[in-house]
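Lecture notes, unit on protein representations.

Consider one protein chain, 357 amino acids long.
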Amino acid sequence: MQNRHPTRQVRLGRLLLGGGAPIAIQSMTNTDTHDKEATLHQVRALEAAGCEIVRIAIPDLAAADIFAFLKREGVGVPLVADIHFDYRIALAAVRGGADKIRINPGNIGERGRVAEVVAACRERQIPIRIGVNSGSLEKHILEKYGGPTAEALAESALSHAAILEALDYEQVVLSVKSSDVPRMIASNRMLAERTDYPLHIGVTEAGGLQAGTVKAAVGIGTLLAEGIGDTVRVSLTADPLHEVAAAKAILGALHLIKSGMDIIACPTCGRTKVDLVPLLARFEAAVAEEGLGHLPLRVAIMGCAVNGPGEARDADIGIACGSGEALLFRAGEVLGKYPAEQIVPVLIAHIKEMGAL
């Protein structure tokens, strides 16, 4: 893993972003913001799932009081107001207690209106996220580059940042997103070369659970592996809780967070003498039922008794199946041989013991 790209640090609520702080996972509510109780329920569910920043769409002035309501209800996770075009909504969200606002300074009107928003954010010491995507580029930039290229995305974001810089405001987070993965990667690389603002990365409009997760893993994972990115959102056409789970999986795969149990399993081949797919399913169900998923253990479920312990020697514990039986090994050492139908409860018992140590 490369060193992180150096960025300045901003604070939103209880959280530090950038400047070497841990990469923050965020998601966005999809409830009707006017339905305060439904939004509260979803925010709490996201926080319980490990979401560290929650963004909320604020379509009108009436919705802006959601932040005061959520704070009164004891919500502690930092909250971001997602605002388009109307500077009055931004001002209302700031007054209501938003911890950050997402807005494009260039599309909320004359410079005086931008200055009002900046003054309000300066008074409350909250950052502004500039969010640019392929569908929101200015006409003159599209004409200059002939379309929503990576260069166009980067230039748009930097031009919006320049508006805030002219007002002497630098508590800024930049985000350039595209549904095109290579374009998203390239535009963020450009920003990392040209600025030290914290970067929010993600693939926008990625799609459903499976396809969207794959796109996010490729785009977000590539940048994180290069040390680029301070906060991530996996955008899925699915329950926002899936976004949090996918983000945790991406960060965990890169060893950027400890995401609990890491289950590795072979893809099976002609040497496999046991039906490994349902065996793995039984093990995963047992882990969930026993509440063991939080344990920071690497567990191997291998289908071949010949190569299993060797291929998974860095696992904390695991099994390697043969014909109707399975070897149990721990830290590369074989502990015993058991009938295949008994191996899952035996493995679970050993994991419980390890968790108690």
